Amino acid sequence: MATQADIAAALATLTDSVAAQTTVTASLTTYIQGIVAQLAAIGSTSTDTTTAAALTALATQITANTAADSAAMVANTSAA
Asked: Where are the domains of the chain?
């Protein structure tokens, strides 16, 4: 049977894990946004319309994928 100390230790470990996940998620979001911005910038300065269109399509798809991932996380996470 778990003691109060065991429960407190488990809660502290879980809290630390959630904090670490939050940091990783924020870093990943920043990383993805940076890629999208770079693709958009390259696409907007390219004189090759095929390349520009391909880069714009990639940036758009990354944004859509990120939105879908976020929606799936929200949909599959119970409210506190």
From this structure: 36-72
